Amino acid sequence: MNLMPKNMLKYLFPFIFIISFWSLITPIFEFPDEQAHIESVEFIVKEGRMPAGEEWDMTAEMKRTQDLLGNFRDTFGNNKYTYHPDYHVEYVDSLIGKYEAEIKSLNTEENRDSYVWKEAARYPRLYYDYMTIWYRLSESKDVIYRIYVLRLGNVLLALATALIIYQSGLLIFAKKSYALTLTMLVMLQPMYSFLSAGINSDNLHNLLFAAIVYCGLRIVRNGLNLNILALTTTVVVLDIVSKPQGYIVLPIIIMAFLLHIIQTKKWKLLSILLAVGLLSLAAIFSPWNPYSSWVNSANVHGANLMDFVRFSLNKLVTQNIVWYWGVFKWLGIVLPPVYWQLANRVVLLGGLGLFVYLWKVIKKNKIITAPLITLYLLLATLIYVLAIYYFDWQYTKAVGYSIGVQARYFFPTISAQMALLMIGILSLGWTARVRIWLRRGLVLFIVWMQLGGLWRLITSYYDVSSVQSFITQASQYKPWFVKGEWWYLWIGLYIASILYLTWMGMVGIKGKKKISDTN
To answer: What one-character DSSP code corresponds to residue 87?
Structure first.
């Protein structure tokens, strides 16, 4: 299997500079749960294991740093940012932050080896083992330097994700221009860019799930062979040991295999597998099964399923359709309404286009991609979303309230989501020329969203009334390579990368991709 087609890297390399800029511009501890994931990495480096139970895992260095920057969360999970979206650390008229010297002075053996609080994440350790590679590159440095080196490790995960999504695009559309457009729709989506730039175990899960979607596409098209079986098995195992929800990969892969059986019209085999599957589900969820979580899980708080459904739907409609496109600064800042309102209308247009696509399938007109591929993308998305809500329902029954499903929890299948959007939008084109302009419209749309999201993030933290004010504030609490005139380099690389991708997206990439089981 060739995951690196000739000349592909030149289309994807700009994503390194784009995600890196998000990483460098965002103050420390400002990505979702970043401090907790950093503490897990530190703990595993020092203790050789993940923290467990109620043991303390936050070092005195981390505690004092968070106190100074306003990020430390009390026993209720609140800090100075909570309910105060206008808050930011106090800036001074210098490239060195007010508390920067004190934070660097905390880099002592006593402060780094003593635990004073409990906050670290308690997830499977694969992601944290990967991050220890980057941690050890800067282990002797101060906490600010260490954090930005750790972030760069996540940038490489983002590049790997872009590579897999590009390959998925080739399988779905068999056109290089379409594959690049799909990659842009995912990687330039502002919330996805933001999440990918920080230290968060979601980044490895998103990468592995993008690989699962890719493997499923291969299976739907070509069935199982030794290569795809080995790849799929490896990815499934890695994802299961990366996140508790990794088991969701299993029904998605099984579903892909069933769709391939339908494609090859092996009805007898399909009937046998469906019968076995239905009997297994009946046994699992049977009221006579003492281990059935559906029937017998704890419900000590009297949680009501219909109340949960109403609550979840209301949150989906009123909150997540906005948060999906970007929520920053401890959930306090979202994109200006013009951005997410237009984005959601593009989604509605794509949904309409899927009905047009279905009509074309029925009429046997020319379509963007094979019907079973589209069905696979739709079912993969639905399976993951429903599984997330099912887990939240189990949590609600156990403790009496929802843990809260954030829109970023849907990102593991974002490649399938954006592919469905492309299929819907492009299906609205009645000629090849119209489809070209619809694809270009998607390119301009996602670049506009990217710039709007980044600008929203920057203006929520820094004074942009002048270049000097911005550089002065953006340089504080940053390592030496993100201070002063270095910003001209990073800004220039970001702008050049955006312009390059926009140009490539508009002019397109010549040639089609032949799809085969050895692809």
So the answer is: -
Model confidence band, residue 277 (pLDDT cutoffs 50, 70, 90):
low
Q: Which amino acid is at 166?
A: Y
CA distance 220 to 497: 34
CB atoms within 10 A of CB 154: 29
Tokens of 130: 């990967």
* DSSP bridge pairs for 115: 59
Give dist(CA 180, CA 506) in Å, integer. Answer: 11
DSSP three-state, residue 203: helix
Say which residue the tokens 């309409």 belong to: 352
- d(C-alpha 143, C-alpha 479), whole Å: 10
Q: What is the pLDDT of residues 462-512, one digit of tens each?
A: 999 999 999 999 999 999 999 999 999 999 999 999 999 999 999 987 666
CA proximity to 491, closest of 504, 502, 475, 506: 475
Other Cβ atoms less than 10 A from the Cβ of 341: the count is: 14
Average pLDDT over residues 47-69: 95
**58-59 and 115-117 strand pairing:** antiparallel
The identity of residue 512, as a single letter, is K
| Residue 226, H or E segment | helix 226-240
d(CA 246, CA 74): 30
- Torsion from C-alpha of 106, 110, 112, 113, nearest 10 degrees: -170
What is the distance between the alpha carbons of residues 222 and 214, in angstroms, rounded to a whole number? 12
Q: What is the DSSP string of 117-174?
A: E-----S-SHHHHHHHHHHHHTTTS-HHHHHHHHHHHHHHHHHHHHHHHHHHHHHHH-
**In angstroms, rounded to a whole number, what is the distance separating the alpha carbons of residues 337 and 108?**
46
User: What 3-state DSSP class applies to 89?
Assistant: coil
pLDDT digits (tens, 9 = 90+) for 325-353: 999 999 999 999 999 999 999 999 999 99
The C-alpha atoms of residue 308 and residue 502 are separated, in whole angstroms, by 43
SS (H, E, C) 425-450: HHHCCCCHHHHHHHHHHHHHHHHHHH
CA–CA separation, 259 and 367 (whole Å): 19
Strands 327-328 and 333-334: antiparallel
Extract the tokens encoding 234: 């490896």
Cα(483)–Cα(45) distance, rounded to whole angstroms?
29
How does DSSP classify residue 283?
H
Torsion of CA 233, 238, 244, 245, to 10 degrees: -50
Beta carbons within 8 Å of 61's beta carbon, 6+ residues apart = 106, 107, 108, 111, 112, 143
In one letter, which amino acid is 518? Answer: T
User: CA distances (Å), 283 to each of 276, 278, 279, 287, 437, in order?
Assistant: 11, 9, 6, 9, 52
Neighbours of 438 (CB within 10 A): 17
Number of residues written out for the chain = 519
Helix (H) or strand (E) holding 467: helix 467-475
Computed from CA positions of residues 349, 328, 45, 47, in that sequence, does the dihedral angle turn out positive or negative? negative
